[in-house]
Each structure stands twice: as structure tokens, then as C-alpha cells.
């Protein structure tokens, strides 16, 4: 079977819970979990409606290893002007500036759209990757594209 990175956790218990949720999504009630299945009763009904790639991204976002700046969103920090700055990291530890935005949420969406254009459906986005269908289609047609990411990051959020 496939393996998926679920994040970095501070305790074994947190890591075990992340594993259990993913296992329940993959194998249902037959999953071998670290804790009794009753611990996850509230989640079981919702797991069927969440695509696996979105569940993995949601689990990663809960991990302490998920990088955040002064914002609660990945790729977003508050600029000294009070506006929200967006930067995206590239391989080789380069960071590309994607602009300043008046809203923290708007900035997070700019980051997400650029990241989806670079990495496709495996992007560790702030919001569900299914929100970015146009970017996913562009990625599937063209592959990773930094210039497209930069272009889209400057477009209004509804593009």
C-alpha cells in the first residue's frame, strides 16, 4: 500500500491519533488502531465524505510541525505595515514573495493557489485543496509552474 506523511508531533499519543484517523479512513472499522475505536466515534460519520488527500492535509495542519509565522495560516506573516505578507518556499530554501494583502484569509488563499499550481493535489494548503479546482486543472495540464503561481497570486481570489 501507499504511505503518507501525516506530520511531526510532540508526543507519541498525538502521532498515534493521527495514524488512527488515517487508518480508519483507509480500512474502516477493520482498521488496527492504537486506541479503542470509541475514541473516534464523532469522526466516523464524517470520514466517508472527506477525500483521502484532504484528510491527510487536514491531519498535517494539526501537527506542531506545520510551519506558521505570525499568522495562523501557512505562508502568511503580518508585515510591519499591518497588512499580511505572503511568501512561498521553494526547494533549496528560496522564498518567493507573493505580495501584501489586507486580509489574513485572502493572503492564505493566495498562498494556497500558488502552492497548488506548484505541487498539485498533494499541496499542504490552509483550506481544502478542493477549493482550488482551476489551479488543479492548470497543474494537471501543465505540471509545476512558478510563473503561473506568481501570475495567479496577483489575481483576485475568485480566479
Query: Mean pLDDT, as a whole number?
Result: 83
| DSSP, total strands | 3
Oligomer: single chain
SSE arrangement, N to C:
HHHEEEHHH
Cα-to-Cα separation, first versus last residue: 36 Å
Please identify, by name, the CATH architecture of the largest domain: 2-Layer Sandwich
Radius of gyration: 17 Å
Note the main sheet. 3 strands, antiparallel
CATH names the topology of the largest domain as GCC-box Binding Domain
| Strand residue content | 5-15%
What topology, given as strand order, has the largest sheet? 1-2-3
Protein name: AP2-domain-containing protein
Subcellular location: Nucleus
Keywords: DNA-binding, Nucleus, Transcription, Transcription regulation
GO molecular function: DNA binding; DNA-binding transcription factor activity
